[in-house]
Design goal:
alpha/beta
């Protein structure tokens, strides 16, 4: 069987170093807000190319804290609007609505699966305060036009970099392209922990300080609380693991691109569509996922399952059709979301991870090409 993601093999590929760093932290007796966090934050800031990294509990918290900090600083207030791609994972949108802000859903480009820059400007109102781009599937969503739009309308540009660690736009990495970025280190991500974790990156000194305070119960000094904060921490074991894995991230991403290149060249089944932005392999994609489109998606997935190839759907139900957003007024949908709904009906993610063998890639290709 070709697993969709073989985390056991991925983790074992870091042995014995990964056990050594875990044992080191356990033996230290210091498990929160210590040297391992300081070291990882410094290394990740250098890697991304920003002044500040603030570790937190997970990717959702990272995005939530950014928006909460902007509210704390008076830059946003309840009812303000945040533009966000309609086909993203629900965490991007939850972070907005949790802060009393209004998610404005904008369609993606079917060839990139990223937010369509040409559809953004028509959705801007006098309540719009930010644009949240999502580097979905590991593909860079940033464009020069998006940056110009943000400058033209004085909008904050927030990156959801949960799926794109190491991705590059020209000479800059995602996570450094906007005003702030949220990162997830969920175990299956390109840079993943052994549990859960997240971070905020930014060049804004005041924003970084505010995020750090809010993530620590609203406190800058012990037992002194200047804000209504929360408890959102990256623990020392996860920070140590991330520092170790960060050394190999670019190499692992290169392997993902090599697999993606084979998929793009060798998958020839006319029933399977690979969007042009996915098929074209470059540094602007780190292939956290490899999405293909198929009008007979469910039958294809069942066929591959029977043939021993695991796949996943990202994502079967679009956010605007989820029960939690059924109540009117929570979301703003300026136009029909037909492209998003098509993607959610047709998308299937193929196995792609650094320790996949060439034989496994060949097997996946052969089975997809044999689908009728």
């Amino acid at each position: 069987m070709v697993k969709f993601l073989d985390l056991e093999r991925v983790t074992n590929s870091f042995e014995p170093e990964i056990s050594e760093v875990v044992n080191r932290v356990v033996a230290s007796g210091w498990y929160l807000q210590g040297r391992e966090n300081e070291e990882f934050e410094r290394k990740y800031s250098d890697y991304i190319g920003v002044s500040h990294t603030v570790g937190c509990a997970n990717g959702l918290d990272a995005l939530t804290l950014i928006l909460r900090a902007y509210k704390e600083l008076g830059i946003m207030r309840d009812g303000d609007e945040i533009i966000v791609p309609a086909n993203t994972y629900i965490a991007s949108i939850l972070a907005i609505s949790e802060n009393g802000l209004v998610p404005v859903l904008v369609e993606p480009d079917i060839e990139t699966l990223q937010i369509d820059p040409e559809k953004i400007e028509n959705c801007i109102t006098n309540k719009t305060k930010a644009l949240m781009i999502v580097h979905l599937y590991g593909k860079c969503a940033y464009t020069d036009e998006i940056w110009k739009i943000c400058k033209r309308y004085d909008l904050k540009l927030i990156e959801d970099n949960a799926q794109a660690h190491g991705c590059i736009f020209e000479n800059r990495r995602t996570g450094s392209l906007g005003d702030a970025a949220g990162h997830s280190f969920y175990p299956g991500k390109n840079l993943g922990t052994l549990g859960d974790g997240g971070a905020v990156t930014t060049n804004d000194d005041i924003l970084a300080k505010t995020v750090r305070r809010l993530a620590n119960y609203g406190s800058d000094r012990k037992y002194v609380f200047d804000s209504l904060g929360r408890n959102s921490r990256l623990d020392e074991i996860q920070a140590a693991v991330l520092s170790l894995k960060l050394k190999r991230l670019d190499c692992d991403n290169a392997r993902r691109r090599a697999i993606a290149k084979r998929y793009g060249i060798e998958i020839s089944n006319p029933l399977i569509r690979i969007p042009n932005g996915i098929k074209r392999v470059g540094k602007d994609n780190v292939y956290h996922l490899y999405p293909v489109l198929c009008e007979q998606r469910d039958r294809l997935q069942e066929y591959l399952k029977q043939e021993g190839v695991q796949t996943l759907i990202h994502y079967p139900i679009p956010p605007h059709q989820q029960k939690c957003y059924a109540k009117k007024g929570i979301l703003s949908i300026p136009a029909p979301l037909l492209i998003s709904e098509t993607i959610h009906k047709q998308e299937l993610s193929l196995p792609i991870y650094p320790v996949m063998t060439e034989q496994e890639v060949s097997y996946v290709v052969s089975k997809i090409n044999s689908f009728k």
